[in-house]
Amino acid sequence: TAVFAGGCFWGVQGVFQHVKGVSKAVSGYTGGSKENAVYEVVGTGSTGHAESVEITYDPSQVTYGQLLQVYFSVAHNPTQLNYQGPDHGTQYRSTIFAGNDEQKKVAESYIAQLDKAKVFSQPIVTTLETGKTFYPAEDYHQDFLTLNPTYPYIVYNDLPKVANLKTLF
Predict the structure, then answer these.
(1) Region 90-110: what's the mean pLDDT?
(2) Which pLDDT does position 156 carry in this prediction?
(3) What is the mean pLDDT of the chain?
(4) 53 carries an active-site annotation
(5) Does residue 168 sit within a domain?
(6) Structural domain range at position 94
(7) Are the C-beta atoms of residues 156 and 10 closer than 8 Å to each other?
(8) List 3, 8, 15, 107, catalytic entry
(9) Can you tell me the mean pLDDT for 26-43?
């Protein structure tokens, strides 16, 4: 599995649900404790959690590196510190939660390549954290983009990401 945080989890989950080789994408919280993995508490920005998505994928169809490519190019803007679009706070930070040493090495290398190539006009602020547990979010947050395609936040902020994914990949 891979765990990425990049703003509101609705859009990140929605993007990765459209990636070939991804069998499951679950919205949740990573970075804090189980006791405070609750939407209303995470929303205060004081829990250490980030809204994140746990991605289950088949490495024979899509690699971790390819997931990183989607994460950095479509799922969010990695140059925005502690916010994405209209959402502000550390719970919306850009973070890769590496599940093992290999993921950590691949992510570090990928970020270094992006920096060297100056892909973004601003510095990448994505952080890399290890040893953190993923806690699934409440049921009403799961598959939010799919179940609520006309919800104004989704229309404005997230459907363009899915369209970009389909164009680029």
Answers:
(1) 98
(2) 96
(3) 97
(4) no
(5) no
(6) 2-152
(7) no
(8) 8
(9) 97
| C-alpha angle 97-80-87 in degrees, rounded to nearest 5 | 85
As a whole number of angstroms, the distance between CA 151 and CA 77 comes to 22
**Is position 46 within any domain?**
yes
C-alpha to C-alpha distances, 8 to 39, 48, 77, 101, 102, nearest whole angstrom: 11, 15, 12, 26, 26
d(CA 128, CA 27): 19
Element (H, E) at 72: none
Is pTM beyond 0.90? Reply is yes
Contacts of 70 (CB under 8 A, 6+ apart): 15, 16, 19, 165, 169
Q: What is the pLDDT of residue 22?
A: 98
Distance of CA 161 to the CA centre of its chain: 12
pLDDT band at 75 (very low <50, low <70, confident <90, very high): very high
In a domain, 157, yes or no: no
Backbone angles phi, psi at 19, to 5 degrees: -90, 125
Return the CATH number at 82.
3.30.1060.10
